[in-house]
Design goal:
With 259 residues, the protein is α/β, with parallel strands linked by helices. It folds into two domains: 6-200, 2-enoyl-CoA Hydratase, Chain A, domain 1; 204-249. 47% of the residues lie in helices and 17% in strands. A six-stranded mixed β-sheet has the order 1-2-3-5-7-10, sandwiched between helices. It has a four-stranded mixed β-sheet with strand order 4-6-8-9. Helix 1 (30-45) links the parallel strand 2 (14-19) and strand 3 (51-56). The radius of gyration is 19 Å and the shape is globular. The two termini are 27 Å apart. The structure holds coenzyme A. The site of coenzyme A (COA) has 17 residues, from strand 6.
């Protein structure tokens, strides 16, 4: 697949999406959103893709926010449409039945922090910086930042960051639970891929069930326990469940086939 603003690469079941505007610190313009949606179409369509890794091009930035140059021509309605479209794109990542993780290789500000937070979990290199600096622009985060930051680090710390435009460095993000691992820049992608290989060795239907049930915690319209019951049943009804339980009883490693 060939794009203008992102790079994609499929290897060993891991589909890497690299936001590729390094001269603009990978700021998210409308073309990036269009292409992210096309990449997610491919994730949903292509059964060779088992999981997704999102990162940014260059050594300095994951994504330094929405592309501010696109803002001044917008009307109020245009701004609301932009926000709703961004939210819808990031919801596709969050609700993907295949694992999506972010390897944060530098600045993750504004829309970049929101992109990372819409992934299922995050790793950061030790030069990463996280924040929602929208109030510096007289703005409010528009791509889910007010919601997911509270979910991930708690209301008090999130309120402080939202109101002060403060940043968390990688270690602070680790302590706050915003990222699961901090690595050197060189170790970031290998560590992310190691985790995804481990996840890819499990039964895909079971992984999808875990994602759906855990997401239901934050969905007011869903009964998370009922979702868990349904997903337990769905996983139970697969050949992979038969293989998993049989392999355990036979004291061998399970060979999952996504069936
Ligand atoms: N939108 C558009 N362009 C951006 C951008 C954004 N969010 N963030 C960075 N850029 C561009 C800069 O304008 C600059 O372009 P230029 O070389 O054509 O002038 C280029 O990326 C490099 O950025 P620069 O500001 O020179 O790098 P820096 O190392 O001095 O500062 C940051 C890095 C991240 C602190 C700074 O770029 C910044 O504050 N960016 C905006 C962050 C933000 O407010 N995000 C939320 C948006 S809603």
């Amino acid at each position: 697949m060939s794009f203008e603003t992102i790079l994609t690469h499929l290897e060993n079941g891991i589909f890497t999406i690299t936001i590729n505007r390094p001269d603009k610190l990978n700021a998210l313009n409308q073309k990036v959103f269009e292409e992210l949606n096309l990449a997610m179409d491919e994730v949903e369509r292509n059964s060779d893709i088992r999981s997704v890794l999102i990162t940014g091009a260059g050594a300095k930035s994951f994504v330094a926010g929405a592309d501010i140059t696109e803002f001044n021509s917008l009307t109020k309605q245009g701004a609301m449409d932009l926000s709703a479209r961004g939210q819808a794109t990031f919801a596709r990542l969050e609700q993907s039945s295949k694992p999506v993780i972010a390897a944060v290789n530098g600045f993750a500000l504004g829309g970049g922090c929101e992109l990372a937070m819409s992934c299922h979990f995050r790793l950061a290199s030790d030069n990463a910086k996280f924040g929602q600096p929208e109030v510096n622009l007289g703005l409010v985060p528009g791509y889910g930042g007010t919601q997911r930051l509270v979910q991930l680090i708690g209301k008090g710390k999130a309120m402080e960051l939202l109101m002060t435009a403060g940043m968390l460095n990688a270690q602070e993000a680790l302590s706050a639970g915003l990222v699961n691992y901090v690595t050197t820049p060189e170790e970031l992608l290998p560590k992310a891929k190691e985790l995804l290989q481990l996840i890819n060795s499990k039964a895909p239907r079971a992984i999808a069930g875990c994602i759906k049930a855990a997401n239901a915690v934050f969905d007011e319209k869903a009964d998370g326990y009922a979702v868990e019951v349904a997903e337990f049943g769905n996983a139970f009804d697969t050949q992979d469940r038969v293989e998993g339980t049989t392999a355990f009883l036979e004291k061998r490693k399970a060979e999952f086939r996504n069936n």
